[in-house]
Amino acid sequence: MIGTFTFENLPCRVVFGSGTLASAKAEIERLGGKRALVLTTPQQEAQGKSLGEALGPLYAGIFPGATMHTPVDVTERALAAMKACEADCVVSLGGGSTTGLGKALALRTGINQLCIPTTYAGSEMTPIVGQTEHGLKTTVRDAAVLPETVIYDVDLTLTLPASLAATSGINAIAHAVEALYARDTNPVTSLMAEEGIRALARALPVIAAKSDDREARTEALYGAWLCGVCLGTVGMALHHKLCHTLGGTFDLPHAETHTVVLPHALAYNAPTVPDAMARISRAINASDASQGLYDLAKRLGAKLALRDIGMPESGIDKAADLAVTNAYWNPRPLERGAIRDLIARAWAGEPPVTIKAAA
Ligand code: NAD
Question: CA dist 170 to 29, 161, 262, 334, Å?
Answer without folding.
Answer: 35, 14, 8, 24
